[in-house]
Design goal:
This protein has about 190 residues and is of the alpha+beta class. The protein has one domain: NADH Oxidase. About 40% of the residues lie in helices and about 15% in strands. The protein contains nine helices and four strands; from the N terminus they run ααβααβαααβαβα. Strands 1-2-4-3 form a four-stranded antiparallel β-sheet. The longest helix has 22 residues. The chain is globular, with a radius of gyration of 17 Å. The chain starts with 7 loop residues before the first helix and ends with a helix. The mean pLDDT is about 90. InterPro entries: Nitroreductase, Nitroreductase-like, Nitroreductase_HadB/RutE.
Length: about 190
């Protein structure tokens, strides 16, 4: 299940946001494998601000209470639920890696971290789908509550939750998307 065997249509067109998953567990080592690939995706200043907090089944109820009501069952039942965060101490982390850009980033580190963590979030979703997994991203969360509950003593700032599992073959119907002619302009 960890091999990349899916085409672009499988990853973008045929995959749907996962709202439910068949029963089963996922090995959390999968996230390390995926991270070791997506960390090379383009980001500003070669920053890698995305942080992943895997919430174990034993701690899941604490997370369930901090997502929108409509998502609570989804989080409770997902094989794997991950809090996505950015590292507000990005400049320090970059300096530790010896990146010269660390000082350029320092004055605007939180904005750069937040924006590039979102970019890496997209890479994560695509990489997981390329492995044939279903993903259910959620931004309807109590980010401050998650920070207080799980990351109070950390520089990590939560911004989303991602459920991961095998895709449910009974996926819901896809919502319409805009046509290219309505979203592409030329000057």
């Amino acid at each position: 299940m960890t091999e990349q065997t899916h085409s672009l249509p499988d990853v973008f067109v045929n995959a749907h946001t996962a709202r439910s998953f068949p029963p089963g567990e996922l090995d959390t080592n999968l996230l390390a494998e995926v991270w070791d690939e997506i960390k090379f995706g383009p980001t500003a200043f070669n920053s890698t601000p995305l942080r992943l907090l895997v919430v174990s089944p034993a701690q899941r109820q604490r997370l369930v209470e901090r997502v929108m009501e409509g998502n609570q069952d989804r989080v409770a039942e997902a094989p794997l639920s991950v809090v996505l965060a950015y590292d507000a101490a990005l400049a320090d982390e970059m300096a530790e890696r010896g990146l010269r850009a660390a000082e350029m980033v320092r004055s605007n580190a939180e904005k750069i971290a937040r924006e590039n963590a979102w970019l890496q979030f997209g890479y994560l979703v695509v990489a997981l789908r390329a492995r044939g997994l279903g993903v259910g991203p959620m931004t309807g969360i109590d980010a401050a509550g998650i920070k207080e509950e799980f990351l109070a003593d950390s520089s990590w700032v939560p911004f989303a939750v991602l459920n991961i599992g095998l895709p449910d073959t009974a996926a819901s119907r896809r919502a319409p998307r805009p046509e290219a002619r309505t979203v592409i302009a030329e000057v």
